[in-house]
Amino acid sequence: FDNYEVEHAFSTIGKRIMLLNARQIEQALGKEKIILLAIEDITERKEVEAGLEKTRKELAVIKITADEVSELAENIIDTIRKPLLVLDQDLRVVKASRSFYEYFNATSDEIIGSLIYDLGNHQWNIPQLRELLEAILPNKKTIDNFEVVHDFSTIGKRTMLLNAQQIERTLGKEKIILLSFEDITERKQSELIIRQQNQLYKEQNATKDKFFSIIAHDLKSPFQSFLGMTEIMAENTEGFSRAEFVERSKSLNESARHLYKLLENLLEWAQVQKGSISYVPKEISLSTTISQNIEIINQRALQKGITIINEVPETQTVFADQKMIDTVLRNLLSNAVKFTRAGGKAVVKSTQSNNGTIKVSIADNGIGINEKDVQRLFKTEEKISTQGTDGETSTGLGLLLCKEFIEMHGGKIWVESEINKGSIFYFTIPASSLIPAINENVIDG
After folding, report:
1. pLDDT digits (tens, 9 = 90+) for 249-260
2. Maximum Cα interatomic distance, the chain, rounded to a whole number of Å
3. Is 19:36 a contact under the CB 8 Å cutoff?
4. Could you give the 3-state DSSP secondary structure of residue 2?
5. Burial class (CB in 10 A: 0-12, 13-18, 19+), 115
6. In what order do the strands lie in the sheet with 93-96?
7. What residues contact residue 219 under an 8 Å CB cut-off, 6+ apart?
8. Which residues, 6+ apart, have CB-to-CB distance to 282 below 8 Å?
9. Using one digit for the tens of pLDDT, what is the confidence trace for 276-295?
10. Degrees (nearest 5) of the Cα angle 147, 149, 152?
11. 82 Cβ contact list (under 8 Å, min separation 6)
């Protein structure tokens, strides 16, 4: 017999496993027999075999576990919403997430095994990405929130946020890199808009603060003059001649008118700023509206010997808010009278533009405005207060109201002026309800 195993506890050598091999041999013409018995101690070999078998079974379990882990890892990668690449130590793609394929419109045949810089017809050959993978990552295991701005051939110019992690495998001899991408283009644009809006709000608030401090000063000065004059008149009523009393009464009336005009304009401007004034446009006769507003200020014009001429065609109609246009015309016509010398004139005209708007002009041959002040006229943070040709005071607020109201119509307002030759104020408004207000960037004329 061959390879017969015997396990026995020997008194001299302890528990051993012996492998027996025996042969029976006949001698002397078959009358005698001898037996050859070979004994081999295989205790250590059996222990090694048992250990190998145990290792084999453990490896089989490990393989099953590794396969499960690999499958789980792949499922996790595919579940991640952000595009993700797994790179080997040579920066070749080992695995890509489903979101990467979908976002960059790629296939596994194009991706797997390729050098990352070659992906998508070399659209990933980005200097910032090379810096991240070749210069920064080798010295750090993790890179967070690395911004890359690039014009991709498939998705256009985008801002990407990269996160990378380096993982060592097989006792540190191999490395893999997990590289995720997050498109933050819209977020960056939103942040920029918010920053710009915040800056705009700061500037607007600063402008309004400065404006109100100017208005407060303008209110304070005429009130002081008004109060001082009334105090003198109250304390010395008998001491005035009739002529002096009439003269001081006229001054008081002028101060009161100025204060009323300032408060009226300030109230309207404040209502515009908080949105309390409603824009209600309708089709109105431009010529009739101008004539009505000329009539309101004509008494003052007659006192100074100034002629106001309305050359707007009677058939001309506009699509505008009646109250707002009245305010604009009153302010511009009042300024024309205020800053024109006796015997002068103001002319109102209109022209039809090709873009569906009417351009209105109010021209005078008055004292004019210097170039520096022309640039400051319609700015909230600037305060220009010039006396009229008869010493008339100015609030400086009327033109700001005109600008606000004209812009609510989608129009523009501007001025051309020359010292001692006069000024022409222009503004545009929609011609009819069929044509919406147009906010022009450039005004021709």
Report:
1. 777 777 777 677
2. 182
3. no
4. coil
5. middle
6. 93-96, 84-88, 174-183, 156-169, 142-152
7. 259, 262, 263
8. 319, 320, 321, 322, 433
9. 677 889 999 999 999 988 88
10. 130
11. 97, 99, 180, 181, 182
